[in-house]
Amino acid sequence: MMNKILEIKNLSKFYQTNEKEIHVLDNININVFQNDFLGIIGPSGSGKSTILSIIANLEDYDLGSIIKKDNLKIGYMLQKDYLMPYLTILDNCLIGLKINKKCTKENIEKTKKMLIKYGLGKYINSYPDDLSGGQRQRAALIRTLVLDPDILLLDEPFSALDYQTRLNISKDIKNIIKEEKKTLIIVTHDINEAINMCNRIIVLSNTPAKIKSIYKIDEDNKDEMYLYKKIWSDLTND
């Protein structure tokens, strides 16, 4: 039996402007299971990032409920890597631990081992400007992983990279998250990225966003062209 760790039930969200109330999310229902790789894709402005912000308790919602497993820990990786240019890669990866007062000798060693394991060992004492865009994203992921979250929320994390780098780093990041046995929820505009990274893809409609379709992906037997055409059709025929 799959272990459900997060449930979003009948979620709706409104924004109030000076002129009117904007209905952003409408009756969203999502179940997230342990070791899920869940993609959320939809038109620009459809509330994809808002869903992540609500899960991470960065935004309130108006209707519905969110049920989380007890003591569920959430890590949030944003579009930019936000590495501090004046800190070494090791010190950048220790920021979260320091903020959470968990920067013990044991956790420092754990961080060093993770940097070595995932190909950044020779950059431990280097600075962000010495790394490529893909390497910087890997460092940002390790900074999040050392806090040992149960779920990783990724918000368009590769959008600033060129297409070929994006393909390579998305596979790289997927393998790291699998190796660390974490659950992933990723928001993306890139259909291929979602197909290659996820075992389920949720497609949202235009606002007020509803769930238009859900695709389950069999990694060993997937028709990427068929999935691409179906998702593209969903996105362009609203």
Condensed summary:
The chain has helices at 48-55, 89-93, 95-99, 105-117, 133-145, 163-179, 191-197, 224-236, and strands at 4-16, 21-33, 37-41, 63-68, 74-77, 151-155, 183-187, 200-204, 211-216. With 238 residues, it is α/β, with parallel strands linked by helices.
Describe the structure.
With 238 residues, this protein is an alpha/beta fold. It has a domain of 129 residues: Rossmann fold (3-Layer(aba) Sandwich), CATH 3.40.50. Helix content is 34%, strand content 26%. The protein contains 8 helices and 9 strands. The strands form 2 sheets. It has a 6-stranded mixed beta sheet with strand order 5-6-7-3-8-9, with helices on both faces. Strands 2-1-4 form a 3-stranded antiparallel beta sheet, with no helix packed on it. Helix 5 runs parallel beside helix 6 and helix 7 packs across helix 8.
Alpha carbon gap, first and last residue: 35 Å
- Helix percent reads 25-40%
Estimated structural class: alpha/beta
- The string of secondary-structure elements, in order, is EEEHEEHHHHEHEHEEH
Spatial shape = globular
- Give the neighbour order of strands across the main sheet: 5-6-7-3-8-9
The CATH topology of the domain at 1-73 and 183-238 is what? Rossmann fold
CATH class of the domain at 1-73 and 183-238 equals Alpha Beta
Number of strands: 9
